Amino acid sequence: MALRLQVQSTLSYSKSLIYYSRLPQRQQSIVSNMKCRASTHSCEPTSNRRSVETFIVVIQNDCKNNLNFLTYLGKAFIIRTKKLKEQKKHRLDDRSMGQIEEIKKALDSIVCKKDMKTKENESLHATVLRFRLLRQHGYQSTYNCGLGIFIHLKDNAGNFKATYFEDEKGILSLYEASHLAIEGESTLEEIKHFIRTLLNKINGNMESNLAKQRLARWFIDVYEKKENIVPVLIELAKLDFNMIQAVHQENAIDLSKWWKNLGLRDKLTFARDSMIQSFLWTLGSNPEPQFSDIRMELTNFIMLITTIDDIYDVYGLLEELELSTDAVERWDVKAMEQLPDYMKICFFALFNTLFNTINESAYFHLKTHRFDCLLFLKKVWIDLCKSYLLEAKWYHNSHKTTLEEDLNNTVVSIGGYVMCVHSFFVLQQTTPEEDFDCLSQYLSIAHWSSMIARLANDLGTSVDELKRADVLKSIQYYRHQTAWKQINKDTFTNDSLLPQLYIKINVNLTGMPLCV
Ligand code: 0FV
Ligand code: MN
Ligand code: MN
Ligand code: MN
Ligand code: MN
Prior knowledge:
InterPro entries: Isoprenoid_synthase_dom_sf, Terpene_cyclase-like_1_C, Terpene_synth_N, Terpene_synth_N_sf, Terpene_synthase-like, Terpene_synthase_metal-bd, Terpenoid_cyclase/PrenylTrfase. Helices cover 66% and strands 2% of the residues. The chain is mainly alpha-helical.
């Protein structure tokens, strides 16, 4: 039941994100053309098998409506966008290198000013924005200076001054900035709680306005209602939004074809059909239109991971699971001969996809750096299956784990390490000597993002976890906070070898279990 709700909420979530609403009727969203059908039969005639009770989301490829929105990928819209940008050249110039220089100069000049305390006449938004921009751009020396500003938010009795919190924009900025805390920054932590409580209390317009401003799609609506707006900017924003949506929807169609051709959907009806959810994960981590390849590849693997997870959690018999884990450990297609048919199909699909998608980049690393990253790939997939098997054993033997034991394993079984190594393959950005170092850094940040993803996933879906005592929840909450601070530290304070894009993928993947 929980899963069913999960799928439905994902659907309505995607629906709300897809498309700017004031479009001609014929350009409707792909999601509204999806039909849900219930999965009824399982694959093997054994009666004591369980099945994931869920709806299967099918994108109807034959529906003509689906293809209409793709007009947004056409030339006419690109030309119109260019024209609009010309009109607003002074605002939206493409000389990005020059602009980056300007931004850096501006940030440097802020840092040079010694007194960064809140000025009486300065808006909360301005103060917070300055702090956030400096931190996000790695201005380490300014941490304490930057933090000093928040002391002014409190009165002598240590309470937050009400006047500061009347300003919508300021609160939003502050809430966002409060997520950038690193170890020991308790004021930011207090602020986060304070605003969260505040938002929960406020009813009506303000809350929904604040929430709306966080999403680009709704921000357009909010902006449109303001005074002194720039109409060209609105047209440009809508066009840009729709063009990016068109790219995403084209991805969804391609993925749907891939998934259909792979055949797991029809053969393994006991498993979740996770295309939309899996795509949302990668959409959340890489929404930019130029990252279609990353989105496609990572989505393929998330879909495979989800199917394999269902085999281990739900459908497979323990002795079968021992066999499949052994086959993956031997990393040998031949070892699959011993598996029951439904497993053969799934693991063959996995190996086939692995070799089709990663061979080129594996060869690239081997050729340019003499670095055999296939070893890492093998290791993380084997570790994943082993962690699945251990959980299956716990389940079948009714083994009660300690929190420590549980987390040590489930931080692996959430699949973050596998995603991390696949991102490494997709990005192909390292230098020869640093490959090994770099990969261990890759895995270090993946540990913290996996921890957050695991805790968020458990809190969201595991009835068992929620049934346990409050103590567990508070420990989880504590871990969650700690993991976030570690990620912020890795992100903002390290002279890291990691590509920014990779860090971004990790940070964004972390947020997805909260939405999906
Ligand atoms: C979680 O499912 C889920 F969404 C999976 C397996 C996809 C993995 C996503 C990434 C690797 C980004 P479920 O809650 O059944 O997973 P657990 O591990 O709790 O069985
Ligand atoms: Mn599961
Ligand atoms: Mn599982
Ligand atoms: Mn779960
Ligand atoms: Mn668990």
